């Protein structure tokens, strides 16, 4: 009889896996998949039933125990979701077709007409655009705050504040927010907290354990790790996730495909190993640049000179390899430096195997505009990357 029942079978009693390595690699034997060690790709769009009574039962519990239509749920995608929830320490996860699909669904699941959002003023640009401009048409107001100051969040809160949106560290100037402090304040006013945890990954930071309500990731970055797919995920407790799944996930349609989930899962299996390499290489390159005469400041929370280094050590167990430098050199010169680099490719995004570089002009805390170069350190030999940086800069001085 075809039931499409999602209860697991063939599960042996075993201690709960503790490390990220084991959580990713370990699975109880599931006889539904003939003992396959890799989850099959369920490419089908729908699931058929042997009786109408069975079909009606499934329709009533599509996001619970049964599969009906892959827009609602798909076994391959669900497998990835279970792994991500375990890694992040959440009760449930839901995958989306992009990071922004995950962010927008998470935000919309919390706020409605007449509500107010507090958002870090250094959060991801499209996320700020979504909250600050797009949601205005639906009567939602957003105030952008200095996220590094717990007092700034308190000062801007209103009676109708329903959401505090964090990103720690941020991905251009690498500001941190005190997750425990902001989470505690949000609870005191009855607001929900959402954090973009893409930079640190669940390997190095678990915000749910620090009092944050919902976690979002751009799966496109470290989690998939190979620059070959786009995706996002929201992770959190059942009390928040059930509403999000019934409404924003099911109605807006920003789903992840089974093929994408399988691709992500293949990358996820090496996430802890890759993060170790990213951390060590990123710190080595950042330390090298901190001594260069053309560098005013290196923005990497893993360096002792970062103004929030102590906070970073308290709430993270390691560091990613995305960081930036601030420079007093002319913007055009910095762009030419980026152009002459051999191993660093010029391109958006990050988190894959390849090193990347972009140049920016951004306001700093004083309001003054400064020049920044953002580096993502990939899986290449860091000594080769350092030579590349030095050789490209030296070539500019020869002209």
What do these coordinates show?
- With 399 residues, the chain is α/β, with parallel strands linked by helices.
- It has two domains: 73-265, Aspartate Aminotransferase, domain 2, CATH 3.40.640; 271-397, Aspartate Aminotransferase, domain 1 (Alpha-Beta Complex), CATH 3.90.1150.10.
- The protein has 14 helices and twelve strands.
- Strands 1-7-6-5-4-2-3 form a seven-stranded mixed sheet, with helices on both faces.
- Helix 8 (201-204) links the parallel strand 5 and strand 6 (214-218).
- Helix 3 packs parallel to helix 10, helix 4 (99-108) packs parallel to helix 5 (125-132) and helix 11 (271-290) runs parallel beside helix 14 (382-397).
Write a short abstract of this structure.
The protein is 37% helix and 16% strand. It is built from 14 helices and 12 strands. β4 (161-167), α7 and β5 form a beta-alpha-beta unit.
Write the layout of secondary structure elements.
Layout: H1 20-25, H2 52-60, H3 75-88, E1 92-96, H4 99-108, E2 116-120, H5 125-132, E3 141-145, H6 150-156, E4 161-167, H7 179-188, E5 192-196, H8 201-204, E6 214-218, E7 232-236, H9 238-252, H10 258-268, H11 271-290, E8 297-299, H12 309-315, E9 322-327, H13 331-340, E10 345-346, E11 356-363, E12 369-376, H14 382-397
Parallel strand pairs: 2-3, 2-4, 4-5, 5-6, 10-11
Antiparallel strand pairs: 1-7, 6-7, 8-9, 9-12, 11-12
């Amino acid at each position: 009889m075809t039931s499409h029942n999602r209860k697991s079978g063939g599960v042996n009693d075993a201690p709960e896996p503790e490390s990220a390595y084991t959580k990713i690699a370990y699975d109880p034997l599931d006889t539904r998949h003939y003992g396959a060690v890799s989850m099959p790709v369920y490419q089908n769009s729908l699931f058929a039933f042997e009786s109408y009574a069975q079909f009606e039962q499934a329709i009533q519990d599509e996001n619970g125990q049964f599969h009906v239509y892959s827009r609602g749920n798909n076994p391959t995608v669900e497998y990835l979701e279970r792994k991500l929830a375990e890694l992040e320490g959440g009760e449930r996860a839901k995958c989306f077709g992009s990071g922004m699909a995950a962010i927008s669904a998470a935000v919309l699941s919390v706020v409605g007409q007449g509500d107010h959002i507090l958002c870090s003023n250094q959060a991801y640009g499209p996320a700020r655009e979504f909250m600050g401009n797009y949601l205005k048409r639906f009567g939602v107001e957003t105030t952008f705050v200095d996220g590094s100051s717990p007092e700034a969040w308190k000062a801007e809160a209103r009676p109708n504040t329903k959401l505090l949106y964090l990103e720690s560290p941020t991905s251009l100037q690498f500001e941190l927010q005190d997750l425990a402090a902001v989470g505690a304040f949000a609870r005191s006013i009855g607001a929900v907290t959402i954090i973009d945890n893409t930079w640190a990954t669940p390997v190095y930071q678990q915000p749910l354990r620090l009092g944050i309500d919902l976690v979002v990731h751009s799966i496109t970055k470290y989690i998939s790790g190979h620059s070959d797919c786009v995706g996002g995920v929201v992770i959190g407790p059942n009390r928040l996730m059930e509403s999000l799944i019934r409404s924003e996930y099911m109605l807006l349609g920003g789903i992840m495909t089974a093929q994408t989930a399988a691709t992500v899962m293949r990358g996820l299996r090496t996430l802890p190993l890759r993060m170790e390499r990213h951390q060590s290489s990123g710190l080595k390159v950042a330390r090298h640049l901190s001594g260069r005469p053309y560098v005013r400041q290196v923005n990497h929370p893993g360096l002792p000179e970062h103004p929030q280094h102590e906070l970073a050590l308290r709430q993270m167990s390691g560091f990613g390899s995305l960081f930036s430098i601030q420079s007093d050199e002319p913007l055009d010169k910095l762009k030419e430096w980026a152009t002459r680099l051999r191993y660093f490719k010029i391109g958006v995004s990050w988190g894959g195997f390849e090193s990347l570089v972009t140049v920016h002009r951004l306001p700093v805390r004083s309001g003054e505009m400064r020049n920044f170069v953002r580096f993502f350190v990939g899986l290449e030999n860091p000594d080769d990357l350092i030579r590349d940086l030095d050789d490209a800069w030296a070539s500019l001085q020869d002209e």
